[in-house]
Amino acid sequence: MKVDEDANLLVLIIDTNPIVWRKSNFSLKEALRHILVFINAHLALKHDNDVAIIASHVGVSKFLYPIPMTHENSDKTIFPNMYQKFRVIDEKVIANMSALFEDVDTPNNYPDKASSMMAGALSMALCYINRITKADEIGHVKSRILIISVSPDSPYQYISIMNCIFSAQKLCIPIDVCKVYGSDTPVFLQQASHITGGKYLKLEMPQGLLQFLMIAFLPDRYNKKYLCLPGEERVDFGAACFCHKKIIDVGYVCSVCLSSILNLICDLFSVYQNVMILFLNHL
Amino acid sequence: MEVNEQKRFETSASYLKKPGRLTITSKRLYWSPNNGEKQPIVNILHSAPSKFFVGKEKVAQEPKFKISTGGSDYTFSLSGWDRIQKIQEELTTVKGRSAAPSPVAPRSAAASPAHQRSSAPSPASGSSSPALRNGPQKVTNKTGASLRNSDKHKLCMQLLLRDKNLSEQHRTLVLKERCVTEDEFWELRQDLLRDHELQMKQKKGRSSVIPNIRPITEEGGETKINITPQLVQEIFDEYPRVKIAYEQNVGDNKPLGHKEFWKRYVQSRFNDRNRTNGSSVVNDDLFEKCWLETEEDINQEKEHRDHGRKRIKISNLRDLSATKEDHMEIELEKDITMRSGHGKILSLIRRSNRHGEKILEASSSKTRISKEKAKQNNQEHQNEDYMPYITIDDLNDEKPENAIRLEIHDQREYFASQKLEQGRDVEMTDSQNSPIDILNEFKTDFVDWKPNLTVSLISDKYARKATKKCNELIKTKQHYAREAIPNLENFPSPIEKEVHLLHLLGNEYLRHFWASWNSKDKTEKNKKMIEKLRGALTRINKIKKMSQDEEALDSSQSSQNTDTRVNELEWSKAITLAEQMLKPLRDAIEIALTRGRSHN
């Protein structure tokens, strides 16, 4: 199979939690401009390249592209100097993003406003990739996932995210993570990129977002093998206590859900069937 | 007779050709003559060390036994051999109670194998006297424990023989360096012992090899054939006709001897019928007959089976009008090998099948049960059970599941710390804006927004910084990938040995430390381990100071060392490498020590 025949599908998951974006000194609009240019660059690399964009919002995740337009506000004029595909995608993304922000009530009623629905977005991405792969008879669509994340990990979504990560690993879909803003280390996303063979990159200055995206995340799966790309290799695999998020050396394990906890008297855990003592030597 | 003494056994016995009465009590054995003397002439206390001799049943004329104690022997003649057995049993039981360290009455070599049944005191032999109940129980525990100890010791030895790594560890830790005692070593490796014990206890079934006589060619060109009794047994199992022939022809009054029989067997065609060199075989009437009869047997078996099948009740659910066309889907070659009655020559496949079937039947209990059931069914002509064929699962009621319901109070709290999240939410909203405000703001912002992608998006400064950062990341990655892997080819062996030893020691101490952590009855051990860990830590620190010359002087192979000397630079490099290697161990020891200190 020649490399020339490969069509690359990039699924982009954009974390659009407004509250976290407000906290950072880099606005979502700026970031979107960088991202749109990046998408155009990806599409420009090859004629067959394709892209799918999913927004991971507070309590909900939605496809931004490709979906049929619901309202008819699109500008039908054809710009002759602009590559049509770029224009179509840009317009659709912006329109759907504003439609997403129109609905204020759903996010407002969601209790956990600090994080975004990453698990939902990942699942949607994987399903879309699966559909495209099955529909592609010749078998040369190579897909990957890129997550642009600002909000911290939501512990409620731990199991779902891990399930998605394992499915991606099974399907050999690399998950790259670009952390634009965030104070805590996102353990889940770091591990996601490590297991699936993707890259994790944390930006110190979000203003250079486009440059980072172009250097680290533009090459497709085939070219990555021959390039040495920047990414943080060290993943913290230390077991963390599920209630306090501290790295623990000696702890307890619940035999039902295999979660590790620091103390038996931690008042959050009301389910105990049997408890084993787990010894960990911190390396 | 003392107060606690109880008569256990009494019989008539003669001593020095005088008739008398022999009595065994709980405390002693004594014999008094029949002429009525009160005082026993022979009085042997059970607590005194004594030896017990019994003549062989077949060889000796009379049943008698001898007790020797304190230098003098006493021989008693009894009326029957069963009496002697009884006396033996009594003596061993009683001795087992009175003398804890030597529970088994020492036996002489003259004891016949028939008496060895009662050699070990069974802890189950309960005492009848309530007064002595505590005594024997203690003793039985000890004997039980001592038995278990000796078994355990055997297990340990076997395990060490089998596992090279384990034996090396054992040698280094227990024998050479004397870091831990033998008991402590095995205390932490209980699971290994248990696994090994289970493995040893497994019962091996019958060997599945078709008994085949294999000649061994010796040096002089002669072929030697070993016929072991086990092989003989296997041949008899496989070919019952040979067994009958053996029984008929070999024995005391029969023509053939044991060796001759087997010689003829080997030479006969029965044995060599699958080998093609016909010149070396001799036609042997005896075994020809065996062969023919075996073939007849097998054919009869087949017929009997087929014949038996005709009597099996044909199920009413079977479609008798089915023809070949109903089974057209399976496209397999027709089997021509397994037809009965075609000639007397049993092909190799059928022989192996027959053999395999025998072995499986021998070891499996299921086939026996099913065969018995089949016989019963045939005999009783039971009505067929149609229910499994006509019940549909969907029509049955759902059975209640055996699942345990998890009583999770609040699923959302399962993984998160509620307090932390609340704090975060408060932080999120800042002081000024509530979330709804932010959301509304975003909504208004994004309405009718058209990003202008034609102007420059990223300033020069940031672009350069970004590129620089990427380059740095790539550099560190390359460094780790290429240069960080150490070159261990010329690693000097004294350092390597020391590092290896320290790892072994350190890990063993850490294991013992954590095993005795938090357990109430092992605080002493814990403290001892802390001391040892400190010692290990100082030893690790001493590695820096290892110098080549010292090593050369210390080791006894100084002549060899001159060949393997490395220059100073490499030695110091190796020392730094060794320190790096020991770093995880050092960290772990330090963690353990701080924990130990805080605990105390």
TrEMBL record, chain A:
It comes from the Eukaryota. Keywords: DNA damage, DNA repair, Metal-binding, Nucleus, Transcription, Transcription regulation, Zinc, Zinc-finger. GO terms for cellular component: transcription factor TFIIH core complex; transcription factor TFIIH holo complex. Its main location: nucleus. Pfam families: Tfb4. It is found in: Nucleus. InterPro entries: TFIIH_Tfb4/GTF2H3 (IPR004600), vWFA_dom_sf (IPR036465). One of its GO terms (biological process) is regulation of DNA-templated transcription. GO terms for molecular function: zinc ion binding. PANTHER family: GENERAL TRANSCRIPTION FACTOR IIH SUBUNIT 3 (PTHR12831:SF0), TRANSCRIPTION INITIATION FACTOR IIH TFIIH , POLYPEPTIDE 3-RELATED (PTHR12831). Belongs to the TFB4 family. Component of the general transcription and DNA repair factor IIH (TFIIH) core complex, which is involved in general and transcription-coupled nucleotide excision repair (NER) of damaged DNA and, when complexed to TFIIK, in RNA transcription by RNA polymerase II. In NER, TFIIH acts by opening DNA around the lesion to allow the excision of the damaged oligonucleotide and its replacement by a new DNA fragment. In transcription, TFIIH has an essential role in transcription initiation. Component of the 7-subunit TFIIH core complex composed of XPB/SSL2, XPD/RAD3, SSL1, TFB1, TFB2, TFB4 and TFB5, which is active in NER. The core complex associates with the 3-subunit CTD-kinase module TFIIK composed of CCL1, KIN28 and TFB3 to form the 10-subunit holoenzyme (holo-TFIIH) active in transcription. This is General transcription and DNA repair factor IIH subunit TFB4.
TrEMBL record, chain B:
It comes from Gigaspora margarita. The lineage of its organism: Eukaryota, Fungi, Fungi incertae sedis, Mucoromycota, Glomeromycotina. Residues 137-148 have a biased composition (Polar residues). Residues 224-269 form the BSD domain. Residues 97-131 have a biased composition (Low complexity). GO terms for cellular component: transcription factor TFIIH core complex. Residues 93-148 are annotated as: Disordered. PANTHER family: TRANSCRIPTION INITIATION FACTOR IIH-RELATED (PTHR12856). One of its GO terms (biological process) is DNA-templated transcription. This is Transcription initiation factor TFIIH subunit 1. InterPro entries: BSD_dom, Tfb1/GTF2H1.
